[in-house]
UniProtKB/TrEMBL annotation:
<dbReference type="Pfam" id="PF08895">
    <property type="entry name" value="DUF1840"/>
</dbReference>
<dbReference type="InterPro" id="IPR014991">
    <property type="entry name" value="DUF1840"/>
</dbReference>
<protein>
    <submittedName>
        <fullName>DUF1840 domain-containing protein</fullName>
    </submittedName>
</protein>
Length: 108
């Protein structure tokens, strides 16, 4: 299923429910049929998501040389998409909402 996040400060952000559940979990929310991230919660949410992205990048850099070791069908430079790329539209929305003091809502 797709989840659509809406906010007056940014374009809608759509993602699969498993990614939405993961990202919301990082910021301390649960995916339900409907939900809201209030403008008062945005600072903490952004901080938590940025920290998770930094951790993911650090772990990715540590494993970069070993990722496709022994796999002949993949180039050694080919890396999976990281959290930074997957979370960017959502993080961008969080930042825009904070700037304009808007809430973010979603529904399935």
């Amino acid at each position: 299923m797709l989840v659509t996040f809406k906010c007056h400060a940014a374009p809608d952000v759509m993602m699969m429910d498993n990614l939405a559940q993961y990202l919301l979990g990082i910021i301390g929310k649960r995916l339900s049929a409907r939900g809201v991230i209030t403008h008062d919660e945005l600072d903490a949410a952004i901080t938590k998501l940025e920290a998770a992205i930094a951790t993911d990048k650090k772990e990715g850099a540590e494993h970069q040389g070993h990722f496709h070791e022994g796999e002949d069908d993949r180039a050694h430079h080919e890396l999976p998409v990281g959290l930074a790329q997957r979370a960017f539209p959502f993080l961008d929305m969080l930042r825009a909402a904070r700037k304009e003091q808007n809430d973010i809502v979603w529904g399935l």
